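Appendix B. Chain record.
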Amino acid sequence: MGFAHNNVLHQNHFRKDWQSRVRTWFDQPGRKLRRRNARKAKAAKLGVRPLELLRPAVRAQTVRYNRKIREGRGFTLAELKEAGIGKKEARGVGIVVDHRRRNLSEEGKALNVERLKAYKARLIVFPRNAKKPKKGDSTGEDLTAATTRSAVPLPPSFIHEEPRKITEEEREFEAYRTLRNERAAARNEGKRKVREAKKAEEEANKKK
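Structure tokens predicted for this chain:
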């Protein structure tokens, strides 16, 4: 080990028992098994209830990711109202409610209303007392029907268009030129309005 220039002299400590401070991961297989057993125990404890709560289908944020559909936090009160489900009832049957979320488009709202209706059609609510079923409880053949615990799948992000021939109107359409014209019209709108107002004023003065 060399020493040069006007630097601090080294005081090296090589007896720190570093082996006792090393982070190991030998319990990884054991933890994997423990997590799996915990999932099994939770599924058994839930009985015939769905393994996951129902959440809305929402668009991801920003222009980069908004083509993707993912699960949101909870359904809006407007979506629940249109699907005919009360907010207290929704929480009782595994539907998450988010009172802060707002619907910004009719398409997104309709998508989640359909999602709620599909879930409601598949839902079987077992009565606490079989002799005295309450309002909203399933009865008759529904109680003996086959049950599934799989969640309602998310809809596709976009529907692919079938291949077709280009129409004559599409062939003649000049996309670039149209964009340039619209951009120029938006940019010069203020000047155009001033010019038109000035022209109208001059014509009004001529008539006098």
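Further analysis of this model is presented in Appendix C.
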